Amino acid sequence: MARCEPMSISQTEFARPWLDQFKQADRELAGRLADAVMLVSHDSLNRSLRALLDQLDADRNGADVCRPIAIYAERAVETRKFKTEWGGNDIEVLPMFPGTETGRAAGPGVPPITINPMDQEVGSEGAVANFITTYQRFIASVCSTIPGQMTCARAVPATSSS
Questions:
Q1: Sign of CA dihedral 111, 112, 118, 123
Q2: Segment 70-118, tens digit of pLDDT
């Protein structure tokens, strides 16, 4: 009996427009790159993230038990270019919320993703933000998406009253 092999991503209609953007000489390499990508379903991603966070919570001990778990999705932010006092160019992150000075947390870290006002498509950060909201609602006692409003308790699954 013949064995049925799964179709490579590079062989799908979905991949054709992506591969067509490459020069003919580069398409084989681009196809191998596409075939090396592991596609993960929405449900599988959510289950895996949930399992990781649950394990993180379960492994806490000592003073860490009373520390909240803070989870944030990096979102695109609006910026503006400006000239520095030395004549160079720089980018400023604009405030995200009314009445705030800056558009993100202060301190060292990875620079935020900048947005193109002509392209407002929501990417993977939307799926991650949705996961965080759902997880926070399920384990509200330990997880917060709002800085300054975190609680100090070990995760206890929410129960519904019927």
A1: positive
A2: 787 777 677 888 888 888 888 887 776 656 665 555 555 555 556 666 6
Tokens standing for 57? 């919570």
Contact (CB, 8 A) for 76 and 126: no
CA atoms within 13 A on the CB side of 114: 9
What count of residues does the chain have?
162
The answer to whether residues 153 and 142 touch, using CB atoms and an 8 Å cutoff, is yes
The pair of three-digit structure tokens given for residue 145, joined into one six-digit string: 């998406």
- DSSP summary character for residue 112: P
Q: Give the 3-state secondary structure of residue 65.
A: helix
For strand 143-144 and strand 89-93, is the pairing parallel, antiparallel, or unpaired? unpaired
What's this model's pTM, rounded to 2 decimal places?
A: 0.52
- Cβ 77 vs Cβ 113: under 8 Å: yes
Orientation of helix 124-138 relative to helix 42-58, angle to 10°: 50
What backbone torsions phi and psi does residue 87 show, to the nearest 5 degrees?
A: 90, 0
Query: Do 139 and 153 contact (CB within 8 A), yes or no?
Result: no
For residues 158 and 140, give the distance between their C-alpha atoms in angstroms, rounded to a whole number. Answer: 8
